[in-house]
Amino acid sequence: MIRLGKQVTQAGDQLQDITLVKFHKALLNPDGEVATLQRRLQAIRALDPAQYRRLKTTLPYVVCADFHPKVRRKENFLHADRFILDIDHLSDFGHDLEELRTKLKLDPQVELLFASPGGDGLKVLFKLDKPISDAAYYAGFYKAFGLVFRNRYQLGEALDIKTHDVSRCCFVSFDPGAYHNPESEGIQAEIYLKQEDLFALDELKAAVKEATAAVQHPPSPENSNQELPDEVIKRIKEKMGMKVHQPRQKDYVQPEELEEIMDLIKGLLEGIQLELSSVRPISYGRQCKINSGKIWAELNIFFGRRGANVVATTKSGSNKELAKQLVEYLQSELTPYS
């Protein structure tokens, strides 16, 4: 059993239980509203991407988790006995949809398989041998399983493992080739969860190594275009008898949880041999500069009503690849604060 919703943008949209058999039949229906809307979506996708994204949100959607009340919110989460992996933009990553579909049909763990509304991706549904009732445990398992699955089929970035939230939904589509295996094998979550930290750490280390190797000719100190520190400028002006402007100290809101979160982040960075070189307060968070040798990335760590959130800044010089990997790694470790 999974849950079906009709208006993803509507707050409080009520979910309805639906069997896998009924859902599979709906995917195959060429005369339904979904098929009509999907044909329109695919026609305008290349012509008007913005309109495509707006129309896509009018499609019905499904979630594998159960909620009480029947509204797709994290605080309403009861348990999940299934989950969906999202493989998208296959052509961009050199994969053929039908070839991959053929391979996945042979996988005894795949319970349901159907194409995404855009026509360039696949949704792969699995069942668990035992329901998961802890949202953090689910997120950890999802990422660990996703990494194994990604490597098994050499999917690379086509498989998005950031879609690990229990409330994550999946839009329904029309797919005459939709596949259902009612005898699929249940996934044992315990096999994958213990491997999560190892997989995430290995990926991060590989990204840092790659980013370091990419910098063949780091600038020398005398030629580098570094900004002169404010304290140095201040001392020079004082020696010259110039008036030094004292900026008014800003009073930033700093939730108590930030101290605990920053202690956790320091430990995580030490564990992967990265340096937290500077931290400064910002509204509801901290701005952090993280170094790997001469390479660095700047991140903002926020804590608010929706919990902890890690965001890469756009500061010039911040290494985008290092920042991307750090955001994914730290966000996954901060799940208990989300």
TrEMBL record:
Name assigned to this protein: VirE N-terminal domain-containing protein
Pfam families: BT4734-like_N (PF08800)
NCBIfam families linked: PrimPol_Db (NF040562)
UniProt xrefs under InterPro entries: BT4734-like_N
BT4734-like N-terminal domain location: 55-179
The species this protein was found in: Algoriphagus alkaliphilus
